[in-house]
Amino acid sequence: EDVDDETFLRNSRTNYTEGASAPKYNTNPFLQDDDYEQQRQMYEHRRREVEDRTLLSSERSLGLLYETEQVGMATAEELARQREQLENTSKQLDDINSTLRFSQRHLTGLKSVFGGLKNYLTRQKEFTPRMSASPSGSNMHDTMSYQEPPKLQMTPEERYENHPVNRLRNEPSYAPQQTTSGGPGDFNARLEQNLDCMAGSLARLKGLAVDLNSEIDTQNDLIDNITNKVEDTDVKIGMQNRDMLKLLGKK
């Protein structure tokens, strides 16, 4: 078939234009593998960064929990020492009240002696006006033969039941859990270990908080009891001081 020159040239220009505008594809397999390897390394690097940050955060939280446990243990020890002081104070107040009871008995005996002596002198003045103010030796002997009431053997006061912070004192000292370093494949195991340690620390802190709260409530009751004892002791001392002043003739 014959084709004229103009048609041949037009077809040639069309084919050349389509070939020039066609996209170029990389047909080299080595270059495609290099791009894939770079992307894989980039994702691997990002994954390691996330894992490192996660482990660092869990270890930092574990350290804070350990420090909180140490503060709680120190508080428990301080409360235990404070409880001992309160119990000693309560015991001393019991001893003071016991002494005051015995001194009150002595004061009652002295009041009886002075009262009997006063009555005796009054009767002597009524029946023997000429008698000197001082009683005879025999009468004085009879008067002063007053026997002091025998002292009863002191019964031991009941002490407060000792409620030391047994659970707090006997609690073993806590040490921070050290995570074992390993390869990238150990991330899950290390993270699981840190989470287990955090759970155990939180459980100990919860028990410690319950014990501290119970101990504080008990010591508050002990302080209230000591306050009542102090007020009772103050009243007894005031009454005995007034009785002594009366016996001495002072107002």
UniProtKB/TrEMBL annotation:
Keyword Nuclease: no
Any single Gene Ontology cellular-component annotation: SNARE complex
Gene Ontology molecular function: SNAP receptor activity; syntaxin binding
Biased composition (Polar residues): 9-30, 131-146
Single GO BP term: protein transport
Coiled coil: 33-99
Domain of life: Eukaryota
Keywords in alphabetical order: Coiled coil, Protein transport, Transport
Name of a matching Pfam family: V-SNARE_C
Region (Disordered): 1-31, 129-148, 168-188
Domain T-SNARE coiled-coil homology, residue spans: 193-247
Gene3D superfamilies associated with the record: 1.20.5.110
PROSITE patterns, sorted: T_SNARE
SUPFAM superfamilies: SNARE fusion complex
Family note: Belongs to the SNAP-25 family.
Protein name: Putative snap-25 synaptosome-associated protein component of snare complex
Organism: Phlebotomus kandelakii
